[in-house]
Specification:
This is Glutathione S-transferase. It comes from Canariomyces notabilis. 56% of the residues lie in helices and 7% in strands. It contains 11 helices and 4 strands; from the N terminus they run βαβαββααααααααα. Strand 3 and strand 4 form a beta hairpin. The protein is globular and about 50 Å long.
């Protein structure tokens, strides 16, 4: 039976708080729209058994058939994938609009995908070493070893962190330019929030949780730390609620 609330399925960190960039996108959107929701925390090995009875699997291009974020609407309908969730929430709860169809989404996604492709040495290793609790670490190590084509430790040895940041720097600076494009700021559309802002917000919060050393190096790679710190400050009304 539905409780009347939306349920957000998220993966806990070792502290039991949000960390992953994709669930953050959905959490920020839920908070922005002021929707009543609760979090159901699901460790990595429990994601498939928890979701499989309720939602079709992802396509073969996905890293896993069942992924988080997923939500359950008050109707009992399950929706998986952050962009699909955003489209459904925008349709079901249109006010305030998150402008999910803003062209900034595709423009930003092009840069974040390229940056993530350059940064596995940073995020895979630090999520494993610093973020995840014991229940998720073996699953994460096994699946990311398959994804990287070698054990995490070996990948890090072959792809030093500093070289990875250098490879990602241009893409991160392109995002900085996007945020500066509208002179009114601090958001991509200026003073008005759009879903793409939550995508970038999730990205920033993801790297921030890895530790001050990672966070400072990340900000340096953007070319203008203040732009992103001001952006996060402007997002604070929707980053504080974590359940």
């Amino acid at each position: 039976m539905s409780s009347g609330q939306i349920v957000l399925f998220d993966i806990p960190s070792k502290t039991g708080k949000p960390w992953s960039l994709n669930p953050w996108k959905t959490r920020l959107l839920l908070n922005y729209k002021g929707l009543d929701y609760k979090t159901e925390w699901v460790e990595y090995p429990n994601i498939k058994p928890r979701l499989e009875p309720h939602v079709p699997p992802n396509g073969p291009q996905s890293m896993a058939p069942y992924t988080i974020p997923t939500i359950m609407l008050p109707s009992g309908q399950y929706v998986m994938d952050s962009l699909e969730i955003a489209k459904v929430l925008e349709k079901e709860y249109p006010s305030p609009s998150a402008h999910v169809d803003s062209p900034y989404y595709d423009r930003l996604l092009e840069q974040t995908k390229a940056a993530m492709a350059a940064l596995p040495s940073v995020y895979v290793t630090n999520v494993y070493d610093r973020v995840l609790g014991e229940a998720s670490r073996p699953y994460f190590h096994e699946t990311r070893t398959k994804y990287l084509g070698m054990p995490i430790e070996e990948y890090l040895a072959k792809h030093p962190v500093e070289e990875s940041f250098q490879a990602a720097e241009q893409y991160l600076r392109n995002v900085t330019a996007l945020l500066k494009e509208n002179g009114q700021g601090p958001f991509l559309m200026g003073r008005e929030v759009c879903y793409a802002d939550f995508v970038w917000g999730g990205f920033l919060l993801f790297f921030k949780v890895m530790g001050e050393d990672v966070w400072e190096r990340f900000l340096k790679a953007t070319g203008d730390a203040k732009v992103h710190l001001d952006f996060l400050e402007a997002l604070e009304p929707w980053t504080k609620k974590v359940d």
